[in-house]
Amino acid sequence: MRIPAKGIAKTPLLASLDDARAKDADWRNGRTFSLVYWAGDDVLEVLHDAFMKYFSENALNPLAFPSLKRFESEVVAMAGNLLGHPSVAGSMTSGGSESILMAVKTARDWARSHRPNIKEPEMVLPISVHPAFQKAAHYLGVKAVHTPIDAGFRADAAAMKSAITDNTILLVGSAPAYPHGVVDPITEIATLALDRELLCHVDACVGGFMLPWVKKLGYAVPDFDFSVPGVTSMSADVHKYGFAAKGASCVLYRSRELRRHQYVAYADWPGGLYGSPSAAGTRPGGPIAAAWAVLQHLGEDGYLRIAQQSMTTARAVMDGIRAIPELRVMGEPTMSIFAFDSAAVDVYALADAMDRRGWHLDRQQKPPSLHMMITPAHAPHVAEILADLEKSVAEVRGSTAASAGSAAMYGMLGALPDRSQVNEFILEFMDSLDAKS
Predict the structure, then answer these.
(1) Distances (CA, A) of 402 to 395, 405, 411
(2) With a threshold of 0.85, does the pTM exceed it?
């Protein structure tokens, strides 16, 4: 494709965008269970208007746009107050992956300063942590040491203790871990870190702007934030259950001294003195302004209302799934994300059957399972979701046809003992997407 010789007028151009998205996932009507966190058109309008006011601004230079620096500082402060540390230090990033990357970079550089004898740093990670930690390990030269999870799908603190070596710089837990929606034993992990004088990061990307409200509503939530001694950093996405515009996340530290290891400074560039707080160079102003605006707009009462609606909906869906004999909710999910599996039917074939009915559930592995993330968008559709799930279970249970579609692909890839072959398949798949665009 080439840039057109003559520019296209606005009206037909925008119409072509509408045509292009016609077959995209219908997140407004609760048909997706990941990727989009929607709190209603009224909130979306606030986000849109706030974002557009700062559409062209670049937060790279706080001297040029002090309003954006103020918004960022206040978002970080609000996040710190929510997560048990009123005097927290931190930065906004483009999303959870960048927040995690910055936390690992900070740990690596902290170790270079405080543990210079460590030449091959390691971080101990439960196998359920987000793959962004694997990405950070790849980028930053920090070895990822994976440990198992227990029967309840939580991190095994004893296994993490056994995995600590003289090269360990960082322990990680999740609140909650995305695959199963359970909170790791953060107090035990942080105590290990304290005892060995290590850093401890809590990945609360999905739960940071939800778990505090869930706890305030009276649900059982284990301690997970800066109120736990030994927790030295956290990541929390405002664009998930904070319902901000993408991409807006926070990486938070217990002290300014620790945060300094996140920064990069370069004094010898002919273009001027250069300092960068995070991985991004250009830092779009829109997501920062929209994050600040939505936190102000919803307030505690708005977030409590959304949390209650999300939790009520999630509990109703989980209860409905438990009432289907062939299905099992995995573990004891703490908030409004969870997974379910089955010993009786092929869950990947079940996901395909739900796809045909217009519902898009995420496929998981080890063991095969399906994942759901619940927001207020799903509240009006609980009965329909469960009815179609029952129909899909009956369809899959009664089918004698060989698996096809994603069911066949996931089944085949899950059975391959050589995981490097699966990695190669993923790379080939990503490379092939260009041809389909």
Answers:
(1) 13, 10, 11
(2) yes
